[in-house]
Amino acid sequence: MSKIAIIGSGFSGLSAACYLASVGHDVHVFEKNETAGGRARQFISDNGYVFDMGPSWYWMPDVFERFFGDFGHTVSDFYDLKLLSPSFDVVFPENETISVPENYSELNSLFESIEEGSSVQLERFMKEAQFKYDTGMGKLVYKPGLSILEFADPDLIKGALRLQVFSSFSSHVRKYFSNPKLIALMEFPVLFLGAMPQDTPALYSLMNYAGLKLGTWYPKGGFAKVIEAIIDLAKSHGAKFHFNSAVERIIVEKDKVRSISVKSSEIVVDAVIASADYHHVEDKLIPASHRNYSEKYWEKKTFAPSCLIFYLGLNKKIDKLNHHTLFFEEDLLDHSKEIYKNPKWPVKPLFYVCCPSKSDDSLAPEGHENLFLLMPIAPGLEDGEELRETYFRIMIQRLEKQIGEEIYEFIDFKRSYCVSNFVEDYNSYKGNAYGLANTLRQTAVLKPCIRNKKIGNLFYAGQLTVPGPGVPPALISGKIVAETLHRHLNKKVHEDSI
Questions:
Q1: What is the pLDDT of residue 189?
Q2: H helices then E strands: how many in the chain?
Q3: Distance of CA 357 to the CA centre of its chain
Q4: Element (H, E) at 36
Q5: Torsion sign (Cα): 296, 299, 300, 304
Q6: What is the pLDDT of residue 248?
Q7: Would you give the distance in Å from CA 374 to the centre of its chain?
Q8: Which residue, 10, 205, 366, 477, shows the most beta carbons closer than 10 Å to its own?
Q9: pLDDT recorded at residue 438
Q10: pLDDT at residue 332, as a whole number
Q11: Residue 489: its pLDDT value, please?
């Protein structure tokens, strides 16, 4: 049995803890904050509002089932899921709102009502998207990205052209649809993948299949319930958790991790998985001579957005608002350019509103509403209070216009979160919220490596390495790195016994 330190308790770190503890390793998770979850932490206000701080879209339910299934469980053993209906709303110019139904036949009818012939096109689009989803989420994302030979799989080679790794997502969508509303509806998921639709591989139409065909779900109690479930699972296999315990240094001796420093105390370990920010680990925790990548490497990388977030409590209920609402009254391309091409605060921003109290009464006091406002922005921007307040007013005014009633005067809790908070809480490079962009040049073996090339027993997990940003990929990242480390340790034991 080896003693393994995992730095960070986000989804990837927790996932790795489960897999490694389940095969007998002595696993210790070190978390700098006082609670687990990383970006999926939850907090409760003094006046009774319960807020998920990060993820709010529960897509790809099969990935969660596969994770818990690896340990002989199902999701329902730990938390309850609710299928949202409608899946989400989209607000277009002139306050035209489209509710996207969870029922697929109704979705076909909706498309047809917007653009004649589009229901047939949707079927064709989804057939291809399902192939990409089944192949991508079934095989591609579980590759550790250590060698190009991993992809010498007959099925992958056979379907390579159909996966459309080298085609533009934007062009792909426009082959099927011409109506601007449908194009916006199909393109919105890639805004959070970290690149403009024009620069994102058409492979990622798998996201459309995930969201429109598999449904948008909600874990009762919020994403914190998912975190709690994974912690319980890890603890049941013997994993131990240490909170308010930032790792200050990884101590290297003869190209191996000897120990870690926590609260000025040295803890001897056999291996380390860094599921904290990759750049932070390399820049602050290990010797410069042992880094995988230089500062210039990181500066050239394309990062997914950061966010300006507001957590709001209202002392009244809102009738005309569903669980998820996307405000797309402004131009998606213009906002995308202000994130990826010419980084600056947006002139006419798109944003997103989540009202989870519509689905869960436990998240707000009786008669009150819980709101989460999120505006994607370029990482690395200055984010002073005056700027935050300016954009808060913009979002609130547009929300009030859409629902036809006042909100501002009824706010009895407000907290903002932005670039500097991501840096402070997660040591996030440039305050990014989602990790590396899923561009062609940052896919699979072209992402930062899960193994340190100079330190034999240091590995990396999370959104800056394979498979990429998002909760399901983070769960998979933990599995990939855990299995890779376990094989490494077994090989070492075998070599030492010879």
A1: 84
A2: 16, 19
A3: 22
A4: none
A5: positive
A6: 98
A7: 14
A8: 477
A9: 85
A10: 87
A11: 95
Structure tokens given for 113: 């009502």
Could you report the per-residue pLDDT of 51-92, keeping only the tens digit for each? Answer: 999 999 999 999 999 999 999 999 999 999 999 999 999 999
Class of residue 441 by CB neighbours under 10 A (exposed 0-12, middle 13-18, buried 19+): exposed
Which residue type sits at 367?
G
Residues 6 or more apart whose CB falls under 8 angstroms from that of 413 comprise 45, 47, 49, 311, 312, 313
Inter-axis angle of helices 471-497 and 61-69, nearest 10: 30
Query: Hey, what are 60's tokens?
Result: 């790809």
Instruction: Give the bridge partners for 372, in sequence order.
Output: 311, 354
Return all residues near 44 (Cβ < 8 A) that are at least 6 apart. Answer: 50, 51
pTM of the model: 0.97
468: Cα within 13 Å, side-chain hemisphere: 25
DSSP string, 143-171: ---S-GGGG--HHHHHTHHHHTTTSBHHH
Nearest of 14, 19, 18 to residue 31 by alpha carbon: 14
Whether 303 and 430 have beta carbons less than 8 Å apart is answered as yes
Task: State the Rg of the chain over Cα.
Answer: 22
Residue ranges in the chain whose pLDDT is less than 50: none
d(CA 355, CA 365): 14
3-class DSSP state of 79: coil
